[in-house]
Amino acid sequence: MSPEARIADLRRALHEHNHRYYVLAEPVISDREFDTLLKELEQLEEQHPELQDPNSPTKRVGSGLTDQFDKVAHSSPMLSLSNSYNQDELQDWADRVQRETSGSCRFTCELKYDGVAIALQYHNGGLVRALTRGDGAVGEDITANVRTIRTIPIQLSPDAPERVEIRGEIILPFQAFEALNQRMEGLGKKAFVNPRNTAAGTLKLQDSAEVARRGLDCFLYGVELDSAGLSSHSSGVEAAESWGFKTPKVLPKAFEVVDNVDDVMRYVAHWEQARQGLPFAIDGVVIKVDESSHRSSLGSTAKSPRWALAYKFETEQGLTRLKRIDYQVGRTGAITPVARLEPVFIAGTTVENASLHNADQIAQLDIREGDLVQVEKGGEIIPKVVGVVLDERPEISAPHVYATHCPDCETPLERAEEEAKHHCPNEQGCPEQIKGRIEHFASRKAMNIDGLGDKSVEQLWAAGMVKAPADLYDLSLEPLLTLDRMAETKAGNLLAGIEASKAIPFERVLFGLGIRHVGETVAKRLARHFGSLAALQLADRDGLLELDVVGPVIADAVLGYFQDGHQMEHLTRLQRAGLQFEGEVDETPQGTALLGKKCVVSGVFSMPRDEIKRLVEQNGGRLAGSVSGSTDFLIAGDKMGPSKREKAERMGVLILTESQFMDMI
Ligand code: IVH
Questions:
Q1: Cβ-based neighbours of 7, under 8 Å, separated by 6 or more
Q2: SS3 call for 387
């Protein structure tokens, strides 16, 4: 047999075994036999590089570094779902849909996976592209990482259409999440907070071999029906199953087609309880109209289809003991109280720390050490303590006395009248604040110094080498090499990163200085308005207040910064090191919301029409004079001629109002 034929046979067999193992959970050969076949294929591919194929089963394990991800326009916008939070809203929606379809529609019920949306494009059966949702119009090409996910077929069965797009959700099951955190712990690294954010972060890793190791999984929830010649969502799901996909049908009762609202409600009630037992997180269920003809007639708004509705579950709560209240100091000196809890399992993860916000909140809820507290994990990453079970309060208990001194440098804390948080005034001497400022200075959105994370800052600080950002520019190779785990390459990279930061534009230097209340946006606006640090320094209060993003608090913070002798000395050193203290702000917006989209602008707007056209082009769109079959969007102002609208509707062109357009960009 020719090597070519053998390679083709092996690939076919391995795809098949992979599907049996990961999707159907019905393997017919042992792991060992599988590995033997895989090894043989690897060897053959190595000997015949001309027969390489990005969709070979050998590519499932990932490899070295990928380049930055390309931005690619979606074939059709990736919309989101309208939400409902109670059964009345769900009932109203279903009634309306049934009315509009003359009672002839069926509903599909499925789970709302709490993960990351993905669009998978197949051509001739092979996976050619996997895109993140991005902003809905343009996503990022993460194909190399997605190829490592075993439940996503990279080669569809022969009966799949020539071109088809499948959309779904990539999730990190609880078990894989826990295993990853254990591995991180072993490496002395920080644990991840929740499966959803970890899945999102994992998909953006540069190293696909690491992606492969983490155990992501995927459920499909949408099959492009037209191109596959299918007339309903349920038949699409069935077809996708036969092409090799893992569909929700693998879970009992997870995918149902019903023809009345009562059955929808029964499905909701079932999963509200049963979700506890699932091996991954869901945050609700999704109800969709099944028939594609009804879907077309119901249509979509700019944000979401009218033929689908998400029903969101209540945020999950847990009860646990509050062991202790600790305090953390941020880079600006702000103090945050943190609840240390008896470990409690909520929504799939173990929670041991929660935010308590500030002194007022602790007093208001009368939260005491030893209390049984309610902990809630909402959409946000950090869980919070939302209440106390007073009946369970230990007999001996005392109101919490808020910290009076800084937990790090023991300076008495202060609290400004208008501020919710206490803060440590020892700006120049409090180690946590200084380290925090250096970390902020080096961070990605500021000076973007590679290799200078919190661990290295801690190390440089402990060795007395860096006490302020300006000290970074005095570092040299020899002393760095005396540090623990600092070999030549690492030290060299760090120095190169520091050197490269000298070219970072002024607006980011200004943000990196860490002036209180001056975030990214304000820094950019100040840099644009004043053009240089020297000019900003000369500005008076009124001059600062002229900017719409600057209020009294920010103005005073900026003025205070330049009146501080320490800061001025530090600025002089940074300037001498060669950082950019002036310069034009890059005004050309990098918007990609309309990348490659053909747009027609028509009617009267709240601003001159040319301004709308300029915005289209600035966001990557192309302008066209009249609506045609290749138009993507018609941006419609007031008084637009009815014939234009009709034509657009007939051709299925998405019509955007001015505000929808603004939302989009
Ligand atoms: S359908 C246009 N079905 O929820 C409707 N979405 O806000 C396309 N999601 O971005 C979505 N489970 O990432 C659909 N069974 C499901 C889903 C689901 C999770 C996500 C999806 C989407 C978001 C909607």
A1: 41, 44, 45, 48, 51
A2: strand
Q: Which atom of ligand 1 is nearest to the CA of 304?
A: 2
199 lines ligand 1 (CB under 6 A): no
Domains of the chain: 3-52 (1.10.287.610), 83-312 (3.30.470.30), 315-423 (2.40.50.140), 431-503 (1.10.150.20), 506-577 (1.10.150.20), 598-664 (3.40.50.10190)
- Taking the centre of ligand 1 as the mean of its atom positions, its distance from the CA of residue 101, in whole angstroms, is 23
Q: What angle do CA 376, 381, 384 make, to 5 degrees?
A: 30
More confident residue, 491 or 35: 491
Beta bridge partners of 373: 320, 388
Read off the amino acid at residue 324.
R
Ligand 1 pocket check for 222: Cβ under 6 Å? yes
**Rounded CA Rg of the chain:** 29
Q: Is 535 exposed, middle or buried (0-12, 13-18, 19+ CB in 10 A)?
A: middle
Instruction: Report d(CA 97, CA 473) in Å as an integer.
Output: 65
Q: Residues near 395 by Cβ (< 8 Å), separated by ≥ 6?
A: none
Q: Worst-scoring range by mean pLDDT, 104-118, 231-245, 335-349, 466-480?
A: 335-349
What mean pLDDT comes out for the span 587-616?
79
Among 83, 221, 313, say which to mutate for ligand 1: greatest number of ligand atoms within 8 Å of CB: 221
Q: Is the CB of 286 under 6 A from ligand 1?
A: yes
Q: In Å, how far are 165, 205, 301, 439, 660 from 633, measured between CA atoms?
A: 21, 33, 13, 44, 11
Choosing from 112, 377, 597, 644, which is the catalytic residue?
A: 112
Please check the confidence at residue 381 and state whether its pLDDT lies above 80: no
pLDDT digits (tens, 9 = 90+) for 283-313: 899 999 999 999 999 998 878 899 999 998 8
pLDDT the model gives residue 379: 45
Lowest mean pLDDT among 119-123, 137-141, 286-290, 549-553: 549-553
Ligand 1 atom with least separation from CA of 110: 15
At position 514, the amino acid (one-letter code) is G
Identify which of 285, 286, 304 to mutate to test ligand 1's pocket (most ligand atoms within 8 A of the CB).
286
Query: Does residue 598 carry a catalytic annotation?
Result: no
Q: Quick one: CA dihedral 27, 32, 37, 41, positive or negative?
A: positive
In the sheet that holds 163-171, the strands lie side by side as 126-132, 116-123, 163-171, 217-223
Task: Name beta bridge partners: 72.
Answer: 139
Query: Contact 362/402 with Cβ under 8 angstroms?
Result: yes
